[in-house]
Amino acid sequence: xxxxxxxxxxxxxxxxxxxxxxxxxxxxxxxxxxxxxxxxxxxxxxxxxxxxxxxxxxxxxxxxxxxxxxxxxxxxxxxxxxxxxxxxxxxxxxxxxxxxxxxxxxxxxxxxxxxxxxxxxxxxxxxxxxxxxxxxxxxxxxxxxxxxxxxxxxxxxxxxxxxxxxxxxxxxxxxxxxxxxxxxxxxxxxxxxxxxxxxxxxxxxxxxxxxxxxxxxxxxxxxxxxxxxxxxxxxxxxxxxxxxxxxxxxxxxxxxxxxxxxxxxxxxxxxxxxxxxxxxxxxxxxxxxxxxxxxxxxxxxxxxxxxxxxxxxxxxxxxx
Length: 320
Fold this sequence. Notes:
By secondary structure, the chain is mostly helical. Helices cover 68% and strands 0% of the residues. The model is unreliable at 19-28 and 53-104 (pLDDT under 50).
């Protein structure tokens, strides 16, 4: 076996492991909402709007998703520290000069700093991942100016990242009350309601957001997730399709059916994805597994043969 063929084999092996890891990572403990993780593994945007710079390259995002998932399997020591109810109570009264725990420092700004200055300091801390500092600054900003919508919204994002859903929902509700037409805050509130199990209210808020921003991928995917929880699968697929196109819509619907242990329905949507893209590795691998799981052994073997043939073709193609 020549050197190029060995290299090609190693590349194919890494890609195979990456795709497999993407599915394994969806079933082990990971940060964030499990449903959102499932969608994000295929490159779809869901959940709250992150306060971060966007690279705008969705193709790269899709291609790198399996490798990010693979890395998560071995990444344990850099998770954000969760906030407990006791910790959160320290932020219940905003604008305080000190706290009982040295981990939560008072604002470092001048005591005469304005609400907008605290907002900017909170935004910078949030971007840097310093969530405790962000909560302090954003809480102070919201206290100084209760009508500062962005302070409430970003405070909700910070609480959400800390894993404190009830407080996140309260902050998003205040933000929406201040500005009912803001798509970002409506999305964030809708997703917070979704995470709290209030699916009908989530659908209401998210449909309002989708009406104002009919092409917003994050809003559409969140709406699809909430509709899945209400058992409105056809409608959910429609929003997944609007968000990412027929192929991604079929894959995401299939994934959600898998999460509900509805193998036959998942197979139907993976088959639909395969009709759109006969060589889609995700659809093929999931079909092979699901066919085997439901006793359709011959079909499972046929799909595995297609996967093996595709891998062999990549190894023997000209130029490798």
